[in-house]
Amino acid sequence: MRLGRKRFWGGEMDVDKLSAYQTLYTCLETVALLMAPISPFFADRLYTDLTSVTKGSTESVHLALFPEAGESDENLEARMKLAQEITSMVLSLRRKVNIKVRQPLSTLMIPVLDEAQKEMIESMADLILNEVNVKTIKYVGNDEGVLVKRVKPDFKKLGPKFGKAMKSVAASISSMSQADIAALERNGSMEFDIDGVKASVELADVEIISEDIPGWQVANDGNITVALDVTITDELRNEGIARDIVNRIQNIRKGRNYDIVDKIKLTFAPDPATEEAIKAYGDYIAKQVLATSLEVAQLADDAAAEVLDIDGTEVKYTDEELQEFKELILAKLEKAQRDYDLLKANVMNNDGNDTADTSPTFKVLEEGASTLGKEEAGQLAQRQMKFIQHLQAALVRIENKTYGICRATGKLIPKERLRAVPHATLSIDVKQQNSKK
Predict the structure, then answer these.
(1) Among positive and negative, which fits the CA dihedral 95, 333, 410, 318?
(2) Phi, psi of 207, deg, nearest 5
(3) Are 223 and 113 in contact (CB under 8 A)?
(4) Which band of pLDDT confidence, cut at 50, 70 and 90, is reported for residue 302?
(5) Is 338 strand, coil or helix?
(6) Backbone dihedral region of 138: left (phi > 0), alpha (psi from -120 to 50 degrees) or beta?
(7) Which residue among 132, 152, 280, 324 sits deepest, i.e. has the most Cβ atoms within 10 Å of its Cβ?
(8) Strand extents, DSSP E, 287-333
(9) Please, what sign has the CA dihedral across residues 410, 415, 419, 421?
(10) What sign has the CA pseudo-torsion 174, 341, 324, 423?
(11) Are 91 and 394 contacting, i.e. CB atoms less than 8 angstroms apart?
(12) C-alpha 237 chain-centroid distance
């Protein structure tokens, strides 16, 4: 229904607009029937409001027959499920680098396993792009080498399954080529020859990780991989500011109790942070908020004036401060990568069950601990990789000049917290409030 707004606002009552209204009516009537047992009074009001106009009847919803499910379209359900999974992954990447959904991005890259998967995604491409606010989808083959993938054994699952042979199976998994990983994703399993014995490894027995590439964020879930171009050009930034302006003005209209069809006139005070966006997207802004005129001019002292708090146009650290944070993050990233490589080597060490830990940075180790079991090393390696990814995401926010802005309040996170936790996206007070909840 949300995606059908433009259809409701169309000009004449043509077939498309009529179909949109009929679809909305069917959904509302069906929801009223479905919710009647758990919300009897509201459902009855909704149902009678609808049917009194269309059917000339005020009979209660509780006297109507409960709706029966029709035949399901398994192909449509599979395509929608795929679209939902891709959308969820892309939105999580946006949250990771603190880029709001109203900010348009240029490209979503999806490695496809085969032609069938590509066709399924293409059939839902418009819906996906609209939901994640990205301009285009680029399809690449899994064998093109654009994205480099790594596969990590899940020792908790491999141990009970292979017993003493787990170490050999894990070594074979870690040595898989890009083509082998693609085959595992495509087929769901792969067989290894371990000392003359066939060992079948399922996709659920491993974790496949796609390495980030400069300017992109990558996510993987099962056999689905997405890469999002998080570079914000001046054109994209201006479009994002225009969308923010529309959002703020719509909120003002609502706060002043304007009717949904009331026309307005807009005058913006000169501001270097928004002038380019207003100039480039003035027509779009005016159309969205029903403005009959839009101009940039000095404002008189007027009680009707409003201050628009536009994300990213005022509250931000200076370039010098961002450079300071960048150097701090790069230093931490270099050390974190060394620690990860050490842990990874520990996991694959074939000389005994325990290995000496030479990294003093892991706070999870108990004081005085001098050895680290392979399972513990594997868990720490996973945590260390997540830490590395958080630092990489922080570098992206620095490049986009959104670093240090609390994603909950829009205010600057204090420098002291950023120096201690350089990948933080929440101020300490917000984090403490969330912990209490």
Answers:
(1) negative
(2) -120, 120
(3) yes
(4) low
(5) helix
(6) beta
(7) 132
(8) 291-296
(9) negative
(10) positive
(11) no
(12) 18
Q: What would the two tokens of residue 109 be?
A: 């890259």
Is 229 within 8 Å of 99 (Cβ atoms)?
A: no
Provide the terminal-to-terminal Cα distance of the chain, rounded to the nearest Å: 32
Residue 365 has pLDDT above 50, yes or no: no
Phi, psi (degrees; rounded to nearest 5) at 177: -80, 170
Quickly tell me which residue has 């059908």 as its tokens. 4
Provide the pLDDT confidence category of residue 437 given band limits of 50, 70 and 90. Answer: low
pLDDT reported for residue 303: 53
Rounded CA separation 378/374 (Å): 6
Taking the C-alpha atoms of residue 144 and residue 213, their distance in angstroms, rounded to an integer, is 14
Residue with tokens 């892309």: 90
pLDDT band with cut points at 50, 70 and 90 for residue 144: low
How far apart are alpha carbons 130 and 128 in whole angstroms? Answer: 5
List 264's β-bridge partners, or say none.
Answer: 291
Q: Could you tell me where the DSSP H helices lie in 14-165?
A: 15-35, 40-54, 74-96, 115-123, 125-132, 155-162
Residues 294, 352: Cα–Cα separation, whole Å: 74
What is the predicted pLDDT for the residue at 371?
52
Among 39, 44, 38, 69, which Cα is nearest to 57's?
44
> What's the rounded mean pLDDT across residues 235-242?
93
Summarize the confidence of residues 140-157 as an average pLDDT.
Answer: 77
DSSP 350: -
321 vs 318: CA distance, rounded Å: 5
